[in-house]
UniProtKB/TrEMBL annotation, chain A:
It comes from Aotus nancymaae (Ma's night monkey). Component of the 9-1-1 cell-cycle checkpoint response complex that plays a major role in DNA repair. The 9-1-1 complex is recruited to DNA lesion upon damage by the RAD17-replication factor C (RFC) clamp loader complex. Acts then as a sliding clamp platform on DNA for several proteins involved in long-patch base excision repair (LP-BER). The lineage of its organism: Eukaryota, Metazoa, Chordata, Craniata, Vertebrata. This is Checkpoint protein. Gene3D superfamilies: 3.70.10.10. Belongs to the HUS1 family. Component of the toroidal 9-1-1 (RAD9-RAD1-HUS1) complex, composed of RAD9A, RAD1 and HUS1. The 9-1-1 complex associates with LIG1, POLB, FEN1, RAD17, HDAC1, RPA1 and RPA2. The 9-1-1 complex associates with the RAD17-RFC complex. HUS1 interacts with POLB, HDAC1, FEN1, PCNA and RAD9B. HUS1 does not interact with RAD17. Interacts with DNAJC7.
Automatic annotation (TrEMBL), chain B:
Transmembrane segments: none annotated. Pfam families: Rad9. Belongs to the rad9 family. PANTHER family: CELL CYCLE CHECKPOINT CONTROL PROTEIN RAD9B, DNA REPAIR PROTEIN RAD9. InterPro entries: DNA_clamp_sf, Rad9, Rad9/Ddc1. GO terms for cellular component: checkpoint clamp complex. Residues 268-292 are annotated as: Disordered. It comes from Aotus nancymaae. Gene3D superfamilies: 3.70.10.10. This is RAD9 checkpoint clamp component B. GO terms for biological process: cellular response to ionizing radiation; DNA repair; DNA replication checkpoint signaling; mitotic intra-S DNA damage checkpoint signaling.
Amino acid sequence: MKFRAKIVDGACLNHFTRISNMIAKLAKTCTLRISPDKLNFILCDKLANGGVSMWCELEQENFFSEFQMEGLSAENNEIYLELTSENLSRALKTAHNARALKIKLTNKHFPCLTVSVELFSMSSSSRIATHDIPIKVIPRKLWKDLQEPMVPDPDVSIYLPVLKTMKSVVEKMKNISSHLIIEANLDGELNLKIETELVRVTTHFKDLGNPPLASESTSQDRNPGHMAEVHIDIRKLLQFLAGQQVNPTKALCNIVTNKMVHFDLLHEDVSLQYFIPALS
Amino acid sequence: MAAMLKCVMSGSQAKVFGKAVQALSRISDQLWLDPSKKGLALRSVNSSRSAYGCVLFSPVFFQHYQWSALVKMNENEHETTLNLKCQLGMKSILPIFRCLNSLERNIEKCKIFTRSDKCKVVIQFFYRHDFSNAVYSEMFVGSDDFDFFQIGMDTEITFCFKELKGILTFSEATHAPISIYFDFPGKPLALSIDDMLVEANFILATLADEPSRASSPQSPCLSQKRKRSDLIKKKAGKNVTGQTLECISRKAAPRRIYPKETLTNISALENSGSPGMKRANGDISEVSESSVSNTEEVPGSLCLRKYDAEKNLMEVMPNISVLSDIEQYPPLPRQEFGVE
């Protein structure tokens, strides 16, 4: 297995760093999947994660000026690595305003992802900072659990309001209740509701807009004002929102009544999907 | 015989202990440690005497609990028992018990020790070694990046990065160049800022070589300006081991523990410090302010030197154990610069 990649463009480097920071906020440990065209940061819906799953995808040619990989085998030309997300984001912290960034798979006493940052310096030579991030290679037999999650047909699909606003609302709600109801309809309305014995609080977002539905027939049957709702753990929603430091280019929310909420975001050219299951 | 307290607890016990300290800190800025056979009591009372808190940890709470009181015979042949009366400022102890979740996860053991005749409380954390998740970082700085670079022989020293970071942050503010003096492992590392307006000296201990490795220096060769070496190895990652733990222990009250001679040695160091030393070594090109990099690890402008045996700065250095007391000495006489 081999992997070597290089970023020389400053904007690409900063974008990659931001993505890494976001992943570090969303998942303590995650899987990095390397394939010839893409990089994925994956969190699968294990019980350990509370059923939350994440699928982040970026096209390697949008970032790397050089990209070489050799997967497990010719038929399975992919590499799956497990790493602590924060290790990568901390290493990339030193790459701010760097001349170049190199990432490669190495074996220094144990398998590592070596991040090499070439910094500008006053002299002719460059300053180089190297970080060896320990990783675990994930065996082939576990790859089936790390595939892109199937997105079921949502009952409602709606554009999200400004995430910062959502986050501050949910932060306050977290002090009152541990679970929250997220509901939305095809009239561009989204509500966040919490309810306890003593108090009920609802925050209404209006005029959000709905993307065109996949199948025409369902939209004709449905009363557009009808709310599709799902009860979720408020902390999982908060963790997702806390990870979005920058407002995304596009943010969509898909609700499958009483089953799950699926967030579909686009940060420039990087897509992020985040699935929160309904509380049983 | 003195009154004393010695107790040991695990990471999760330390978390509970820390929570008690935090709760009592809401009452007052002072914390009393009061050991007895019933256990260790933490007490706090506010200045207006309107709130009082006491948390008693029984001896079985700890992995190890040992205490003694001072027993005195007075004139009437009556025994009086004087328990340890230990009062700490919350300001000193609270920062130690700050990140309790990380404490629970990373600490193997926490030891607390104090004696009535010592005027200090020693709190030691022993971290778990979790190498499977440690990130190893290395930075290479070429000799061209320095205003002056003179290394006698390839050297590798290990010291506390956290302390270095603080010094570098300060030097950024002064815009003055820093000189670094170091020797073989075990000898202290000195960082020195010396310009018209400010003079600062920081001395850090370095890890000594293991006895098995030969540490006898070969004959030093001077003026190898172009010699490149990996200068500083920093271990990044969450876990801290060994020497750096010493940074965590705090003193209850400042106290001069060491005799006056040591002060003289430090004065000798200061006075024979940067200006004198620089002159002895010939001309140093005027160091210009260098732009400070954004990255955490990159220093401003560094000047490194290794001295030959006679002028070895490190030989006038006092015993490493006194390093923690340096801040407690009265300020040393400064040279007058004739500034209005």
